Amino acid sequence: MLATMLEADGLSRDDVELVDVGFALSQALLAGTVDAVVGAYWTHELIVMENEGHDANVILPDEWGVPTYYELVLVASEKTIRDRPELVEKFVKAFSKGYERALSDPQGSIDTLLRMNPDAEIDEAVDRAGVELIVPLWQAENQPFGSLVPERWTSFSDWMKSRDLIDQSVDPSSAYETSFTGQ
Q1: Are 80 and 112 in contact (CB under 8 A)?
Q2: For every residue of the chain, which 3-state class applies, written as one string?
Q3: Structural fold of domain 78-181
Q4: pTM, rounded to two decimals
Q5: Burial of 68 (0-12, 13-18, 19+ CB in 10 A)
Q6: How many Å apart are CA 67 and CA 10, to the nearest integer?
Q7: Can you tell me the distance from the alpha carbon of 51 to that of 91, in angstroms, rounded to the nearest whole number?
Q8: Over the stretch 44-101, which tens digit does the pLDDT of each residue have?
Q9: 146, 183 Cβ separation under 8 angstroms
């Protein structure tokens, strides 16, 4: 992804120095160790940085030449789908119910998160602000939960093939299973 994004601005990987900062993404930015990071959750790190009084910019891959792709997906092996479809169905049903509740009451979902994880180190202010950023993304496509657009899979697969990230493009019908979502 980085190479494509750099190329969109007339640069190459030779024009940048890659530095592995581990999981200390915000800290590396704030310390001046790096000028940018890859892999940060803008609905978390951005808020943390802003809450600490720092300016930050979010660079979205699909605005810099990378095809739009699905980021958060549920994954099950073909064996589990075949041998334990009732488990997959129950999980997807519960997950969908949680998603719908979070969508209808974002702050209530944070209340539940905090109540169910009393010993977890959760920054409530960050999560409350983050859920408000992400809810519009959940609603952006006006599609029912679990809907997947084959063209998005094809576009991203073709891009991956063109970048030699995979050997051959993927047939979207073999890339995902939506029967458990009712789609």
Answers
A1: no
A2: CHHHHHHCCCCCHHHCCCCCCCCCHHHHHHHCCCCCCCCCCCCCHHHHHHHCCCCCCCCCHHHCCCCCCCCCCCCCCHHHHHHCHHHHHHHHHHHHHHHHHHHHCHHHHHHHHHHHCCCCCCCHHHHHHHHHHHHHHHHCCCCCCCCCCHHHHHHHHHHHHHCCCCCCCCCHHHHCCCHHHCC
A3: D-Maltodextrin-Binding Protein; domain 2 (3.40.190)
A4: 0.78
A5: middle
A6: 18
A7: 35
A8: 989 989 999 999 899 999 999 999 988 878 899 999 999 999 999 999 999 989 988 9
A9: yes
Where are the domains positioned within the chain? 2-63, 78-181
Torsion of CA 169, 150, 69, 96, to 10 degrees: -130
